[in-house]
User: Fold these one by one.
Assistant:
Number 1:
Amino acid sequence: MRRLPALVVMVALVFTLLPLTAAAAETADDASMILAVEEDGDDGPVGPNPAARLDEDNAATTLSGYESPDVPFTWGAAWILSFAGLAGLALMVGFYMLVVRRPDGSS
C-alpha cells in the first residue's frame, strides 16, 4: 500500500508535465529550427550527377570497393547462419527428448 501514493503522484506529474512541454514546444521560435539555408536561392541538386554503377569512369567503383559485382558476403553468411540455427534447434529438441521426455517413454 505504500507504493500506491507514490505511483499516483508520478502519474499525476507525468500528466501535468506532458501538456507543459507540448505548449513550450509550440511557443518555441521557428527560426531556431532552421538548420541550413542556401544563399543563392538555387533549388538544383548540390554536387555532380551520379554516374552509373558499372560505368568505367565512375570514381565510386574504386573508392568504395565495388570493383566486382560478385556474390556478396551476406548471401553466404545467411546460409551459414541458417545452418547454425537449424543445428541449434535440432540440439535443443534432442536435449528436450533426452531430459524431459526420457528415452524410456515416461514423462
Note: DSSP finds three helices and no strands in the chain.
Number 2:
Amino acid sequence: MSAIAKEAGVGKALLYSRFSSQTDILIAAFEAYIPELTGEFSNIRELLLAEANRMADLYLGEHALALQRAIIDASAGVDPFPQITEGMAQRTVIPMRAHVRAAIERGELPPWTKVTTLLDVIEGAVRMHVFAAPHLTDKVRAGIREYTQALVDEQLLLLTKVGPLRGHPVPDWQPAAAVQS
C-alpha cells in the first residue's frame, strides 16, 4: 500500500467495506492529500500567496514523487490518473479561478486580468522552480517562501501595467480603495 494511501487513512481492511477497487483507494488518497485551499484571506495577494505556497509544499513534500507520477501518468492516459488529476483540478484550480474572478469584480484586480493566465504564471512558475533542478531541492526548499512572495508581488504589479497592451484605455488603474492594504 502506498504511503499516500496510508496518509488518507485507507487500509486493506477498508477495501471491502468502503472501496470497491484499488482505483477507488488511490482516488481517495489523492483527494485526502490534495484538498481545496481553505482559510480566510483579506485580499487577493494573500490568497495567491497561500495557493503558491500550498503548491510548493505539495511539490516539495513527502509525496512529491507520487504527485509527479500522477501528473505524468495522466498525461500519458494511464488509468486512473486522468480522473485523479481532474479531481485535483476540481479541488484546486477551479476554486482559485472563482476567487480571482471575484477579486476582479470587487475591483481588487484590474478588469483586464486574464484569470487562467495569472494562475498559469504563478502555479506554473512554482512547478518549474521546484522541478527544474532536482539536485537543488534543499536550496529551493530553503528559499521557497521568498520566491513565491516575489512571484506573486511581481505578477500583481505587472497586471496593473498591461491594460493598454490588452486593449483597455485606463492605463493608470489602481485597486479599489476598500481593498488596498
Note: The chain is about 65% helix and 0% strand.
Number 3:
Amino acid sequence: MEKISNYLRSRKNRIDLSFYISIVTGVLFSIYNGYFGFKYKLVWNFSIFFYYIILLILRVLISFNKKSKVMFNITQITSIIITIILIFPAVLMIRNERNISFSIIPAIAIATYTTYKIVMVVRKYLYIKKNNELFAGEILILNIIECGVSILTLQNTLIVVNNGYDSDMVILSIISSVGILLFLIVIIFIFWFHYIRED
C-alpha cells in the first residue's frame, strides 16, 4: 500500500495511470459493442466497435506524440470525421426498429461505464483549468467524445431492453442522437480553435 501511495503522489504518475485505465476501459467497451453488434446484427453497436478502435489508436498515438502539433491536428480532424459519419448509423439503427430481447445486464454495464466516463471528464476538465497542457487537453476531448457516445449507447440499449421503439420514441431518439453527435463536433471545433489561439 505504501508503494501505491508513493506512486500516486506524483502528478505525472496519476495522469499516466488515468490514461492506461482509459485505454483498458475503452478496449472493453469496444469488445462489448463488437459482441452485440455481430451477435444481434445491431448497426449502432457494430459501428461503435470500429469507432472506439479508432479512438484507441488516436489515444495511443497521442501518448507517443504528446507535444506534436501535427498529431494534435490529425486527432481533431479524425475525431470530427468519424463523429459526423456516426450520425448515419445512429439514424439507421433507430429507423430499423428491430425487436431484440436481451437482459438488463448490458444496460447496467453501460450505465456504469458512462458514469465512469462522466467522472473522468469532470476531473480532467478541472485539471485543464489549472494546467493548460496540450496532451491533457487532447485526452479530455477524447473522453468527452467517448462520454457522449456511451450516453447514446446507453439510451439505445435501454430502449431495446424495454421492448423497442414506438413512433414517438423514434423521433425523440433521432433528435437526441443527432443532437449529441453535433454537440460533440462543436466541442471539438471549440477545443481546436482554443489551442490554435494559444499558439
Note: The helical segments are 2-9, 11-40, 43-64, 69-96, 105-130, 134-161, 167-198.
Number 4:
Amino acid sequence: MANRGDSGSSILASTLAGAVLGAAGLAWWLLTETERRQQRQRQQRGLRLSRLQGGVAEAPAPFHSGSSMPDSALQDKVQQLNQAIDDVRRQLESLSTNG
C-alpha cells in the first residue's frame, strides 16, 4: 500500500508543478500583451499628435526612417509641444495655488 501513497503524492506534485508552470506562462503572456497594448497606445498618441500639429485631416503614413519631415523640423515640433505642455502645467499650478 506504500506504493499507492507514493503515486498519490506524485500526482499531487505533478499537479502543483503544472499549476505553477501554467500560472507562470499566463503571467508572461499577460505581461507581453500589456507591453504590446502600451506600445500601440504610444503609437496612436504619436499619430494623433502629428495630426494635431500638422493639421492633417487624413491619416498620415506610418512612421519610417524615410520620413518626409526632416529631423530638424520634427525636433522643432517636439520642442513647441513641450513648451505648450510646460505652459499648461504652469497655468494649472497657478490655479491650484490661487484656489
Note: Residues 2-54 form the longest helix (53 residues).
